[in-house]
Amino acid sequence: MTHLIDAPSARVWGLKIALVTSAALAVTACGGSSTPSPSPTPLPSATLAAVDPCLVGTWTVVAQNQSSPANDENITYSRGAGEVFTVDAHGGVTIDTHAAQPVALEDSSGQKFTATVAGTGRGTLTTTTNGTRRSFDFVPSADDTRTTHSFDSTGTELGPARPDTPFSAVYTCAPGRLTFYKTVVGYMVDGPIVTLTAGSGNASSTASPTPS
CA 103, CA 208: separation in Å to the nearest integer? Predict the structure, then answer.
C-alpha cells in the first residue's frame, strides 16, 4: 500500500527553517582606473546551539502500543522496541539500530504492514522552547546510513528503502523518560508518538500520550 511510503497528514503543522546566504559586492571606479575590490569580511564559523540538557544521554525506544492518526486515518502501532539514541551535550546524535524490532502497523481497513530500520543514524539536533512547548530539529549528517524499509503483509517491500531526512518534533522530557512526535508526517510509519527510557536496555510501554 503506497501510503505506507508516502502519506501526507492533515493533523500536523510544519516548522520553517530559514537559510541565510550572503554575497560580496565588487566596486569598480569610473574614469578608466579601477579600485581593487574589498575582501569580504569572513563570517564567523557556525557553532552548534546548546541542546536541552534533558535530552543528553542514552535512550532506548520501548515497544509501541497505541493508535495515532496518519494519512487521515487511525493507524495502530505495536512492537518497534530496541533502537538506541545517544545525544551528546553539543547536540550530536547517534542512532544504533542493531537491536531494533520491526514496527507493526494496521490501518483502519485491517491491512497490516511492518517497517524495519537498518544502518546507523548520525546527525545533530537543536532545541527550541516556546512557552511550555519544547521542540527539536534533527538534521542527518553525511555519514548517516540509517534506512527504513516497509513491507506489506506478504513480506513484499513497498518501494525503495528510505534514508533519514531532516525532521522537526515536539518532545516531553522527564528524568528517565522521553517522548517525541514528528510535527509533519510524510510517511505512515512516522505517525506514532515515540517513547524512550533512559539507558541502553529494552522496556515495554503501555502509555500512549496524546499530542497537544
Answer: 15
How many residues can be counted in the chain?
A: 212
Q: Can you tell me the distance from the alpha carbon of 151 to that of 105, in angstroms, rounded to the nearest whole number? A: 10
Q: Report CA-CA distances (Å) from 150 to 5, 59, 108.
A: 7, 24, 18
pLDDT tens digits for range 123-181: 999 999 999 999 999 999 999 999 999 999 999 999 999 999 999 999 999 999 999 99
Predicted pLDDT of residue 193: 94
The cell 500500500 sits on which residue?
1
Residue pair 106/75 in contact (Cβ under 8 Å)? The answer is yes
Across the strands, what pairs with 116? 149
Q: How confident is the model at residue 110 (pLDDT cuts 50, 70, 90)?
A: very high
186/161: higher pLDDT: 161
> What backbone torsions phi and psi does residue 135 show, to the nearest 5 degrees?
-140, 160
What are 80's three cell numbers? 518497534
Q: In the chain, what are the domain boundaries?
A: 48-198
Spatial contact of 26 and 203, defined as CB atoms under 8 Å apart: no
